[in-house]
Amino acid sequence: MAMWQEKEHTKRPCWVQPTVLSAGLKLGRLVSPVFGGPGAMDNRGFQQGCFNSFQSSSSDEDLVDIPGTAMNFSLRDDVPPLDGEIEEDKSYNGGGIGSSTRMMDFLEEPIPGVGTYDDFNTIDWVREKSRDRDRHREITNKSKESTWALIHSVSDAFSGWLLMLLIGLLSGSLAGLIDISAHWMTDLKEGICTKGLWFNHEHCCWDSDQVTFENKDKCPKWNSWSQLLISTEEGAFAYIVNYFMYVLWALLFAFLAVSLVKVFAPYACGSGIPEIKTILSGFIIRGYLGKWTLIIKTITLVLAVSSGLSLGKEGPLVHVACCCGNILCHCFNKYRKNEAKRREVLSAAAAAGVSVAFGAPIGGVLFSLEEVSYYFPLKTLWRSFFAALVAAFTLRSINPFGNSRLVLFYVEFHTPWHLFELVPFILLGIFGGLWGALFIRTNIAWCRKRKTTQLGKYPVIEVLVVTAITAILAFPNEYTRMSTSELISELFNDCGLLDSSKLCDYENYFNSSKGGDLPDRPAGAGVYSAMWQLALTLIMKIVITIFTFGMKIPSGLFIPSMAVGAIAGRLLGVGMEQMAYYHHDWAIFNSWCSQGADCITPGLYAMVGAAACLGGVTRMTVSLVVIMFELTGGLEYIVPLMAAAMTSKWVADALGREGIYDAHIRLNGYPFLEAKEEFAHKTLAMDVMKPRRNDPLLTVLTQDSMTVEDVETVISETTYSGFPVVVSRESQRLVGFVLRRDLIISIENARKKQDGVVSTSIIYFTEHSPPMPPYTPPTLKLRNILDLSPFTVTDLTPMEIVVDIFRKLGLRQCLVTHNGRLLGIITKKDVLKHIAQMANQDPDSILFN
Questions:
Q1: Which pTM was predicted?
Q2: Could you write out the DSSP letters of every residue in 762-812?
Q3: Residues 6+ apart with CB under 8 A from 708
Q4: Residue 291: which domain range?
Q5: How far apart are CA 121 and CA 117, in angstroms?
Q6: Domain check: are 664 and 689 in the same one?
Q7: The CATH number of the domain where 635 resides is what?
Q8: Is the residue at 486 inside a domain?
Q9: pLDDT tens digits, residue range 342-362?
């Protein structure tokens, strides 16, 4: 494992940089510590701390398998450098050799690197919040001393709102750019505009006076590839040319997307939501929200959507917005230096991402609260709402679809629904739950096969094969050939007199001069033809999406899931419409549906089906209903949406408790404690803590009797990320807890700053040092890096309470005592493994995939 180390003359602390191993989509093994406990697993080669004369390794959690990381391409843009020049010639509390009082306390000034975290470590939420309170208290106290300090206090309070404004502006702008580019490149597969290559099909034909409602897609200025290459669009050869160009462009876009991801930003693949959930829970994945990831994900998202694969851009837009939020945090020290505060910003950025994805600001806030965020205080709720508002306003100003709407499939329905229709709506909910459970199981099985076989070593070939199959099957069917967003828009559409779609090919037996809604009509030949095509589209979408989601390109799941549900809903809606027309005298219809009335709206069924399938896959409820409500703008359809969403969740939960994002978190081994699950087992802290019986004793540091050499030996011979500090080895009375990284940086910094600190110097964690004999080297005081209030529980504490503490406080570790004496330690990894063991799962699969 490569290491990055400073030269001897530099004043910066040693950095740790894990690098990517091989082309096999795996980053190696990051070991979870059992802090200071002998039960910790080996951490061979993950990270290397540097002293002058030895190397050591540590980590906080086991290495997770980040999907798509296949190249040795280290990105560290999301966390600012912690290095800095250390002041030289700074005096210390004590004299040279022979002084009677020689305790060195150089930590009065903060040392760069102390209090920070290595890659693939969990942050200490309690410490981060405490540091932020201290910072805020200091600024408030100083604001009373001068006008400049008061201005600084006001700017600090305002910085959060300014940051939300910038996130909203940047997220909305990028979303508009992605929408416009994807629309143009999707149409590029079928032809080009002769009056300007930058026009998509719709914009090219806007000002043409030869376009009719029957042939709205044909205009002289838009030429298909057969017209350009062989000067005709009629006949079998022209069809073959268009077919070939469609497949060729799809393969080109997909190849560019997977190649850019593989070479420049391995973290840009997938939807990003499982990783963002893990990051928001307190995990560190450096580079995942960096500038290279943002640039590559933005470009490749356009390419992936344009290739025609069964994926969407809505999920990746959340990742893009979080990248924007993380990068902009660097402009504000308040958020740059505090990991907990930064995660509040990322929660708001996720809301802005959903806001521009669906044009649903309120739904975005609720999505962040319900599905993504781990810690969501009230202040973050307000700021999330503001960021989502600004993002939606920015996208509306850009108007990427030319319809003054934020999404392509915005619809408005006017026909009220009847109570009896709750039955088909619930049936759609059942279908959505079954589809969600089926998709999760099959997709996870395929992704596991990809990770454990040779298939995972060839991401480019996999993407090209899936793209070729998708394009070959998609072109003959107009509903699979069009983009998925356009398909959803077509399915949601409430047919009017001027609609030329085959879905609106009804036989008209009424006076069209009368106003009002169109009555239910008998289906024409076009409707029946469309039903067969939609049935084939449904089968293809169900199958191909299973193999598409999880490939090494940006891929969202919202739009494919909605498309599956919308197709099923439209099919059911048309069936109900025709049943009501031909059998309006049946008991179920005669009380509310008379002949010639507009009773059934097939587009509403499509919308309810879309919500049901999306809910079955993601297990969203409240935020899903609000998002769909904002798409339609109709309050009267909330009840059908709620009925379908709840039914879908109940059915899917009965077949499997995990949503797709939680399933991928578990598959990849991310250290994520699900707050929604209850721990109902009657185990105690002593059953989980390390060390166990017959294990070696806990590795500890004493408060005033260990030398620098002793501490360096402990660090070099162990792989733990922290050590309990006790009064003495005999008493085992707990004093505090010190992190390995802080120890390494502090001792290295002391050696650089003072020649008097040698291997025989005594390290003290106490407030005052006892008198030392003459002619002894200076002592080293490290009390300022000691956590004097580590969380402790007794050995008889029920594990349900311990799990609750870890979830609600975001702890990294918890010490176990008995009558005030230190017994052991429980880490987040131990809790996760214990939960898996209680659920009859392999505990070693939690963090070692």
A1: 0.82
A2: EEE-SSSPPP--TT-PPEEE-GGG-BSS--EEETT-BHHHHHHHHHHH--S
A3: 747, 757, 758, 759, 760, 761, 763, 780
A4: 163-398
A5: 6
A6: no
A7: 1.10.3080.10
A8: yes
A9: 999 999 999 999 999 988 899
